[in-house]
Amino acid sequence: MTQMIANFLSGTLGPVTLYTVILGLLATVVAVLVAVGWVIAKDRIRRIRSRDWPIVPAVVDIVSVAYCEPGSPSLYLKSVAYDPYYQATLTYTYRYPDEQMGDYSRSFGGSKENAEAWANSYKGETIKVRVDPSDPTRSILREEDL
Question: DSSP string covering the chain, please?
């Protein structure tokens, strides 16, 4: 055991060197950062493209609130500071040209009651959504359109 610690401190671990371990950890960190960056970039591109999409009325039919386990991947991407974490979802229907359905989710930390109050305030309400003219099944509800 003492020899293994000495080998580690000297930079050699037998066939695996300390350099290899550090390089592997660095590659893992870079891969995670690229994945998170991709999710953020994809969302921003979609939001920029949707600026010119037609705006149509939609009705919020279903509201729900779900508890997300601390440490889940979505927690790290959406609301790192919150534990526990609740996700409120508004499900809406719109006509463009036929009836379509979409949803919008928002994260709430700490209080299920706040998430439920926010979601319930939109139940049955008419809202504005932006619809992709090339694919009417795709829509986006922007926070500023609520």
Answer: -HHHHHHHHHTEETTEEHHHHHHHHHHHHHHHHHHHHHHHHHHHHHHHHGGGSPEEEEEEEEEEEEEE-TT-HHHHHH-TT-SSEEEEEEEEEEESSSEEEEEEEEEEES-HHHHHHHHHTTTT-EEEEEE-TT-TT-EE--GGG-
Angle at 82 between CA 142 and CA 61, to 5 degrees: 40
pLDDT band at 76 (very low <50, low <70, confident <90, very high): very low
Question: Where are the domains positioned within the chain?
Answer: 2-47, 55-145
pTM given for the model: 0.67
Per residue in 77-105, pLDDT tens? Answer: 554 444 678 999 999 999 999 999 999 99
Instruction: Report, in angstroms and rounded to the nearest whole number, the Rg of the chain calculated over CA atoms.
Output: 23
pLDDT digits (tens, 9 = 90+) for 38-68: 878 877 887 788 888 999 999 999 999 999 8
